[in-house]
Amino acid sequence: MSAILAIPNxxxxxxxxxxxxxxIIGSSLIIFSYFRWRDLQTTSxxxxxxxxxxxxxTAIGNLIGSVSEDTGAFCVAQSTxxxxxxxxxxxxxxxxxxxxxxxIPGLSSNPDGVVRYFxxxxxxxxxxxxxxxxGFGVLGPSAVGWCWIDxxxxxxxxxxWGLFTGKAWELxxxxxxxxxxxxxxxxxxxxxxxxA
Length: 196
Prior knowledge:
By secondary structure, the chain is mainly α. Helices cover 77% and strands 2% of the residues.
């Protein structure tokens, strides 16, 4: 019976490893392309590089987690990396949309000036959240198949910490990105309809 149950687990691991490797290749190509060709070095593409760095770290962390059986300190380190990088990725996704909105004529005289604030929020806030989670000792082995929130706590705490260390930020990023792109679309239409 255990051999039958191991087949889906092996298939899932294979899928996870394949998608992680593809993410690593894709993120690496974006980063390499940016530094290789000077023509690509615009602020919007630089923001894409920061998003790619966060995604690269997430893919590496998930790949390591998919091949490791460790539930100790290594698992906590892997959970820390993927929690931090996933949150950073959500932030960069939203900030790219904010930047594109600010690039619409008449909305900002210097959209490049906000990039330093994006760094503070996109790297700093996930760092604070991960530090709090580490301080409470909640990162570690999880029932979801990789290291994230230690599932030895009561279920309501696992859910609350899961929201705080990722899922709530992910949902906020989805909603914010949709709203921002709808606003961008509306503003671009208004701008293009104005008589010259």
